[in-house]
């Protein structure tokens, strides 16, 4: 008796393992549910085909880690203070980097020597007035003494470069800067696909480049930009930005579908003002910086000319994305699309079990109640052999076994 139980237990477990389970379906013949189900399925298919596959190109492998190099060259000349200035005087840094400044306004303080002199910014009546400025960081060191500024007033003394910087604000901007041209050379590479290209497209000839200027209609690939046009496309007014300075972004975008030929991978140029804060806030408007040129006189004393420069800074920013068909994302998204079509059932189940008339009957059909069989012995009580009864059944079981 015991050995036979043991043997049949082994058999029972083996037969339990070598089975195939499949879900039982309940077919509901209801127009409402049928329409909802098909509509949801259709929406999901349309979404996947139209948006995920055709628009977002989910079958492609994407590369956003664009490698890029930018070199620039600016040309032009202007008049400042009755003196002619060329690009070497007006552009910094001279290397032609992707971030460069073109001077539009200059405030020059000539022949400054090291020493002590009155600082017109801080007026005073007595020494104590100047003591409170001593801890301030300023151009030079405040000595704390109250000295004669000019014939009528007193001001604090500073130890630094003298005379102190002139605070003239009425200098005229160099208007010729609007006609300056910026030449941009950009090479890019998408490392994943080992694809490289430059913004000098094959149809750009030497003759064309000598006379072309970028515009949004006919010359969208010309790599030479007039400052005025760049500001215009960035919705800026030249005279306003020339007065206070500012930062302008020249963005080069490379959106490439490499399933197509190389000619379809072309740059697009967009322009905008990057220091938007300067426009909205009156504190610290625009963009300026200082630099100096140093000289020595005959007896060896160093002196300098100080320049406060208002400039338009151009930042050339490159971004890009390339995609190419690849089996792995294609399969993953294809499977995701198929699985998602089944999502309609979730919604229909909720409606079926909670909102439809007679949902209790549907519930009963969907979830079958099977009472627990406590006796797990192989000796069948129902006389149908030990195939069916040699297992524990849970109280609420969704699956039915078909023999
Ligand atoms: C810029 O060039 C245009 C013609 O190309 C000229 O009419 C204009 O006066 C120039 N601007 C300045 C400030 O020189």
Automatic annotation (TrEMBL):
GO terms for molecular function: ATP binding; extracellularly ATP-gated monoatomic cation channel activity; purinergic nucleotide receptor activity. Keywords: ATP-binding, Cell membrane, Disulfide bond, Glycoprotein, Ion channel, Ion transport, Ligand-gated ion channel, Membrane, Nucleotide-binding, Receptor, Transmembrane, Transmembrane helix, Transport. One of its GO terms (biological process) is response to ATP. ATP binds at residues 73-75, 181, 288-290, 308. Disulfide bonds join 117-162, 124-146, 130-156, 212-222, 256-265. Pfam families: P2X_receptor. One of its GO terms (cellular component) is postsynapse. Glycans are attached at residue 179. It is found in: Cell membrane; Membrane. It catalyses: Ca(2+)(in) = Ca(2+)(out); Na(+)(in) = Na(+)(out). It is a multi-pass membrane protein. Its main location: membrane. The chain crosses the membrane at residues 35-54, 331-356. InterPro entries: P2X3_purnocptor, P2X_extracellular_dom_sf, P2X_purnocptor, P2X_receptor, P2X_RECEPTOR_CS. PANTHER family: P2X PURINOCEPTOR, P2X PURINOCEPTOR 3. Homotrimer. Forms heterotrimer with P2RX2. Heterotrimeric P2RX2/3 has a ligand dose-response profile that is distinct from either homotrimeric P2RX2 or P2RX3. Belongs to the P2X receptor family. Receptor for ATP that acts as a ligand-gated ion channel. NCBIfam families: P2X (TIGR00863). This is P2X purinoceptor. The gene is P2RX3.
């Amino acid at each position: 008796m015991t050995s036979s139980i043991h043997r049949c237990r082994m058999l029972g477990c083996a037969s339990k393992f070598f089975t195939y389970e499949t879900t039982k379906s309940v077919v509901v013949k209801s127009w409402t549910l049928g329409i909802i189900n098909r509509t949801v399925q259709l929406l999901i298919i349309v979404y996947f085909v139209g948006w995920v596959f055709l628009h977002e190109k989910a079958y492609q492998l994407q590369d956003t880690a664009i490698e890029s190099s930018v070199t620039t060259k600016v040309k032009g000349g202007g008049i400042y203070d009755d003196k002619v200035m060329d690009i070497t005087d007006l552009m910094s840094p001279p290397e032609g980097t992707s971030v460069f400044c073109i001077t539009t306004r200059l405030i020059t303080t000539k022949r400054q020597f090291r020493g002590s002199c009155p600082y017109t910014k801080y007026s005073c009546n007595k020494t104590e007035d100047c003591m409170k400025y001593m801890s301030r960081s300023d151009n030079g060191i405040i000595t704390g003494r109250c000295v004669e500024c000019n014939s009528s007033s007193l001001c604090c003394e500073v130890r630094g470069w003298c005379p102190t910087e002139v605070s003239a604000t009425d200098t005229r901007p160099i208007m010729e800067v609007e006609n300056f041209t910026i030449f941009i050379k950009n090479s890019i590479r998408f490392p994943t696909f080992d694809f490289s290209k430059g913004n000098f497209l094959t149809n750009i000839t030497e003759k064309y480049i000598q006379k072309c200027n970028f515009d949004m209609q006919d010359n969208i690939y010309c790599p030479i930009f007039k400052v005025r046009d760049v500001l215009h496309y960035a919705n800026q007014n030249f005279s306003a930005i020339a007065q206070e300075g500012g930062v302008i972004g020249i963005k080069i975008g490379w959106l490439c579908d490499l399933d197509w030929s190389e000619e379809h991978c072309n740059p697009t140029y967009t322009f905008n003002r990057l220091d938007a804060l300067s426009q909205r806030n009156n504190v610290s408007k625009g963009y300026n910086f200082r630099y100096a040129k140093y000289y020595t006189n005959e007896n060896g004393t160093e002196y300098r000319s100080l320049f406060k420069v208002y400039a338009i800074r151009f930042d050339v920013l490159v971004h890009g994305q390339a995609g190419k068909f690849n089996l792995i994302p294609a399969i993953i998204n294809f499977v995701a699309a198929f699985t998602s079509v089944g999502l309609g059932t979730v919604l229909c189940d909720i409606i079926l079990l909670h909102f439809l008339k007679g949902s209790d009957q549907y519930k009963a059909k969907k979830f079958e109640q099977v009472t627990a069989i406590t006796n797990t012995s192989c000796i069948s009580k129902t006389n149908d052999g030990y195939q069916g009864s040699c297992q524990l059944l849970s109280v609420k079981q969704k699956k039915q076994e078909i023999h």
